[in-house]
Design a protein that fits this description.
By secondary structure, the protein is mostly beta strands. The protein has one helix at 49-61, and strands spanning 4-5, 9-13, 19-23, 36-37, 45-48, 66-70, 75-80, 92-93, 114-117, 128-130, 141-143. The protein folds into 2 domains: 1-40 and 87-117, SET domain (Beta-clip-like, Beta Complex), CATH 2.170.270; 41-85, no CATH class. The structure holds zinc ion.
Length: 146
Amino acid sequence: MVLVINPEIEIKNSPIQGKGLFTKVPIKKGETVWISEGEEPYDEKIYTDEEFKEFQKWCIENGKEWDAVANGDGTHTAAISEREKHPGNYGNHSCDPNMGKGYVALRDIKAGEELTADYAQFSTKDWEMKCNCGAKNCKGTVRGAL
Ligand SMILES: [Zn+2]
């Protein structure tokens, strides 16, 4: 199954860091925001010649790089080489996030707002990150809560 990104969400440069997820439409408090559906072909898989052509085409269309080895019997072992490019990973951390667990909107979100989550709730205690979110209650350093 090929990955589909919610057409109402766009990935663009974020004032927080790198790229972020931005909603094009207003989201009501309590709504679940879906970012993407399906899976990217990250895991190494054996493709027939025809499947491999589809895989390459998909990668090119989606701006992905891949690693591939021809197996000599008409099949190819291939996978996307850049894991960090998963769209869900573009969601930036904020100390004052607008999405909670399960991407549920914590408040009304306006069209054009960046979608953010508190990384602490997805991370283990040995993890920390300097934060640049700009929220009034910014902790400066974010530490995992798990
Ligand atoms: Zn912060």
